[in-house]
Amino acid sequence: MDIKLFDSELKVMCVLWNEGDTTAKHISDVLKEEIGWNMNTTYTLIKRCIKKGAIERSEPNFVCHALIPKEEVQEAETNELINKIYDGSADKLFAALLSRKKLSAEEIEKLKKIVADLE
Questions:
Q1: pTM over 0.90
Q2: Is the dihedral of CA 54, 58, 64, 67 positive or negative?
């Protein structure tokens, strides 16, 4: 993914991913409720996302459509985290995540299945 989204822009994208195509006003209403942002802040961030090619705007009513899927952004952000914090080592990230919490037998089985599917 060539688009770098900042945390504030990701909040706008999350509303679109969760709700689907919607108006800028609705995005603003959701983010006012969730974060306390005013309309101008949200509209500025939507316009930044449009300039970056992450959102497409259509009329009437300033309807926004996400141009990049959530999974693509998750993959890019995960890769950046692995490279920046864990020296490019996915196993170090995995070990760090697992050491933070005691896993249930069910969670362990899910992880085993994920690893088995990778092989």
A1: no
A2: negative
